[in-house]
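Q: Can I see a sequence and its folded structure?
A: Here is a first one.
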Amino acid sequence: MSIGPKKHTDPSTVAAHDEPGGAGPVDIDQWFADVLAVSYENTSTAHFVITAEYSDPPTTMSYEGDMDLTDPDRPMMAFTVSAEGVDPFDMVLVDGKGYMKQGDSYRRIPGKGITEIANELYPHVTIERDRRAVLKIELVGTEEVEGAQTTHYVLTYDATRLSHHDVTGDTFELELWLDEKMRTIKTSTASEMNVEGKPLSMALETIYSDHGKPVTIETPPKHRLTDLLRRIFLRTPKPSKQV
């Protein structure tokens, strides 16, 4: 799935989403047509900081970098991954391929899901993908977030219909803060999951800034590419031979 296609809605013809008549439920179809569609149109580049907290073992991870969604079929991102007890490392996602920096070289990440990884780092795709699972959308109100005036929404999903099948419970909530141009400034979720049969709590918060500012994201030069990370991503134990 790619981010898009972008819709050519004229934002001037859309009612201001920060003046919908007060807090409370909003029409789901109208929200997707008048808010998310314009958000697609107005999103190009951004800086992001993702903080993820896991319960077992207690772990905090962060992802910080830049994204370029100008071409919805070619999402590009460059970011640094940090975690407690692990040296930070850089990743580049471009042209449907992923690369991990190790020292002065880059290693190609094998697999066909790199574009999906890029898509997951911006909420448009996941919101659109799980549209049929949305039970209600509620306007909370206007708030200042990271220096921007935003409108705060809460999307409630039927957890049993989510594409994330490991989410437990009857419902799942996504909090979303949009600026005056309906670009995402912040998202927040908290969920309980089953991972390999074990319960896991996860809290995820993302802050987006510098919308529209130029970014440079390029494929690493060939002379800095090394072997694939097969031992990390692909290798599985071989079955023992029967004697």
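Q: Show me another, different protein.
A: A second, unrelated one:
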Amino acid sequence: MNNQINIVKSGNFLNNVRLELVRNKKPLILGVSSIWGLYIIAGIFMGYNHTGGGGKETFIFAFMAQLIAVVVASLAFTDMKRKEERIYSLMIPASVNAKFITRWIGAVPLLCALLVIGFYLGDFARISTFAISNARWEDFPEYMKVFNPWIVFAAKGDLNDGVLACCIAFGSYFFSQSIYFFGAILWPKLSFIKTLASLYVIQTVLGIFLMLVHRFGSFSWSFFDVRPLLWVMFAIMAVMTFVCYVLAYVRYSKSQVVYKLF
């Protein structure tokens, strides 16, 4: 009996995935093409101007990835904007879990994989463009190598902790994305703008609070203190990321034909 129930649930999820792929075939193809196209264009620009190929390129591509991630996350529930689309979405014969997990997979792990591929496509475009546009490309063997972005794991410096640096980087990426993912179902219309405005207000209030704390208190941090503080920061981001996903699920599970904020 339990095996039959599991088969039904699995089939329900897979059928919903197929339906979403069929419904959004053109937008998905356009979206993937646009993401990879942006990385390739950036790589061509770098190769033509003999820039990139190191930390600067990683920073630019990482900034692009963060921006793309929050934009895509804010579009995760676009079919909940209008009443007609909400009715169609709610009437699809699939469980809330199947519908939500499908959206989450597309907006989070699948998008992350596409962005990683985009990084390498951009890097190959940089190398190819430089080789085509510069007859002396053989004189720059280091520039012609594919840059390894995962070198952050071997980061050196004051913190001397590549794992910590990587955790902070990925923690910030997924945390900010989860906020926009939650905002996408909290207010489907103009989700990106509303979430961005809300974050601006929250950051302003927190900034004022921290300035007051700094003004009336005395704190000093050494490099020995920073590392555990950063680990605490990463732990907070990980917990808050999970909380945002849970809140998004709860909000989605309570969705009705008539939109209600609360």
